[in-house]
Amino acid sequence: MRITRTGGGRSRRAAALTTSVLTASALLLTACSSDSDDSDASDSDGKITLKVADYGQFGYKEAGLFEKYQQLHPNIEVKEETTANEQDYYPKLLQQLNSGSGLGDVVGVEIARIKEVVDTQAGKFTDLKGAIDTSQWVEWKAKQATTKDGQVIGAGTDIGPMSLCYRRDLFEKAGLPTDREEVAKAVAGGWEDYIKLGEKYQAKAPEGTYFMDSASAMFNGVVSSSESQYYDADGKAIYKDSPAVQKGWNLAAQAADKKLTQGLPQFQDPWKAALRKGSVATVVCPAWMALQIQNYSGDDFAGKWDISRAPGATAANWGGSFLTVPKSGKHVKEATELVKWLTAPEQQAAVFKAVGIFPSNKGAYDLPEVKDGKLAYFNNAPVGQIYAEEAKTIPVAVLGPKDGVIKDTISREINNMEQRGTKPDKAWDAATEAIDKAIG
Q1: Which of 329, 214, 347, 337 has the alpha carbon at shortest distance from 281?
Q2: Which terminus of the chain has fewer Cβ atoms in its 10 Å neighbourhood, N or C?
Q3: Structure pTM?
């Protein structure tokens, strides 16, 4: 993810990973974008410049990968141009695709956008099927970037397997289990068990604390753990009748009604302040989220957080991006080779070590940077093993072109239930009315 959030729910994070222990670093990002289009130029000495256009934090610079690639390929210089906010980045990318100018040689695409790009822009991207081995990825990741006729227009960078981050000290004060395996057992039956655990917590909750930060985050966890979400396989919006959406909505309404949630939209200032204050006991935690919690909670809560498996037998995926190669570039061959290298197991493992972004390439899971990866801040939670196990149970979800719009609109109405006391029926009507206007 990237410090900012898109419809796919992905926020980028910042951290440093040793071979066995993940610790925080001050990598919260700043924008460094430029409108200049010099990516197709070659220097007078014949060196090729490849522009990588992305958003947030992909971790390549922090892992030293661009520098390493240039050492391996002395005739190539890699220039990264980053937009901090993906919601600013994507409209600009569409404009560049439509005009045919200003594109990078390598272009990042967020998971919330990949379906729309595959359906409407695939002809403008290089088919990577012959260059990369898609069998290396988790199955559903490859399908997300594959067109109906079998072209693969994007190479998977990372995924966001879901876990549960929780405060051991607050659980202990509320009389709940603190061991991560015991916590996993307590929610093994699914998100309904998560609500039940929240009721037990709230009955003896330390003053001023809440079981969860946001019911909308739980809603996303429920929906994201289902194969059928907002659209069907034919591209029809089915969110009104989707069992996963209905289940997630009903559980969110319960959480709001039972006052289990502090009702804080994630990544906004009140949410960050709550983490600093220590008023939140659990956060639905895709792989990248732990490092957000670490950054905003600060040193006072080091070792008090822990990580357990997500509720239920089926994990959720929240987040992930792709690297694509526009056909319009003058260095398509070289750009394709760079994408192949950046998404290989060794490089994805290096990114995980540097910034905690979990690999989509299964070959990275057995490498020590991932297999032995632990988060010291989270009581040395073996996150490499936890996320790898969760990744195995994530379903092959059906994506739609406006998943992000639907999810964000529903999340806003869930927040209204939490903060304003809006009745569930009224909130649902408002959400569906706004969604129908937005998606047509």
Answers
A1: 214
A2: C
A3: 0.84
